[in-house]
Design a protein that fits this description.
Low-confidence stretches: none
Largest sheet: 6 strands, mixed
Shape: globular
Distance between the termini: 37 Å
Bound molecules: adenosine-5'-triphosphate
Structural class: alpha/beta
Number of strands: 9
């Protein structure tokens, strides 16, 4: 069985009652993600995907194609409109998990690295404090053991250990991203979700963060979903890739195949736009 198996994952946005035809009237064939009848925005619809243990799955697509909506639902940060997600550590549909179960799963089984640092870290806390928060949430109580684990995680993610007790808002963007990764992997989750892991970083810093994550991913064999509009990021990290457009998956396959022999014109356009 896959680590995660998602079917028909759908998310609507809007103030009005969906008319019932929103999915049929949106998507790549219509070139839009907003229902012309009722105004509902279809963030994503009917998304099927699976993630094997230890595998990296990339999700690419232009801005607004539904990548973050999908990632946030899988990270249990956003309620789904419909869908079924089987996850190895959960009995039942993951999308139906109640509040306590979500908190529990997020603390121990699913690590999330948010696109915006403020969504993932408390910048007034120390860097070490942010990582310790994850450990405390998972039940760690011994002060010395927590310090030692945070120190190890800083070393692992290449954050200077002597900055551990400094407020996180004094860290560089690259260091803050690394602290988010340290926090995400603190409790050895089975799945890590990286949402736009390089946004806002200089090119040289991006490369170092990606190299660091790739090393950790391989050493720990942790399954990862990496969401990015940047094909270079996905090409570097992902074994398999799904391409999204107007809220739908339009192509999927081994990353090398998708990049070298895209079956859809849109994928080809995406690739051409970065070459
Ligand atoms: N809270 C919301 N309320 C209304 N519409 C939303 C909301 N969040 C997302 N959307 C819409 O859903 C669609 C998909 O957005 P989403 O953020 O998932 O795409 P994305 O591919 O991650 O884009 P980006 O790369 O810009 O973050 C977009 O049209 C977006 O405007």
């Amino acid at each position: 069985m896959s680590l995660l198996d998602a079917e028909n994952v759908t998310r609507f946005y809007g103030e009005f009652e969906p008319c019932g035809d929103c999915v049929d009237l949106t998507g790549p064939t219509h070139g839009r993600n907003q229902c012309p009848d009722c105004g509902t925005v279809v963030g994503c619809a009917d998304v099927d995907l699976d993630v094997e243990r230890g595998e990296v799955l990339g999700i690419v697509g232009e801005s607004g194609s539904g990548k973050s909506s999908l990632a946030e639902m899988l990270a249990l940060d956003l309620a789904a409109t419909a869908g079924n997600v089987e996850f190895a550590s959960y009995d039942g549909n993951l999308l139906d998990a109640n509040y306590e179960e979500r908190v529990d799963l997020r603390n121990t089984n699913v690590g999330m690295v948010h696109q915006h640092v403020r969504d993932g870290l408390n910048l007034e806390f120390t860097g070490g404090g942010n990582v310790a928060e994850s450990l405390l949430a998972a039940g760690w109580r011994n002060f010395d053991e927590i310090r030692a684990r945070v120190r190890d995680l800083f070393e692992e993610t290449e954050v200077p250990v002597d900055r551990m007790d400094d407020p996180t808002d004094t860290y560089s963007g690259g260091m803050q991203r690394r602290v988010q990764i340290a926090k995400a992997i603190a409790n050895d989750p089975e799945l890590v979700i990286l949402d736009e892991p390089t946004t806002g970083l200089d090119v040289s810093v991006q490369a170092r963060v990606l190299d660091m994550f790739r090393r950790i991913q391989r050493e720990q064999d942790v399954a990862t979903i990496v969401v990015s509009h940047d094909l270079g990021v996905v090409r570097l990290l992902a074994d398999r890739t799904v391409v999204m457009r107007h809220g739908r998956v339009i192509e999927s396959g081994l990353t090398d195949r998708v990049m070298e022999d895209p079956q859809r014109e849109y994928t080809q356009t995406l690739i051409n736009s970065v070459i």
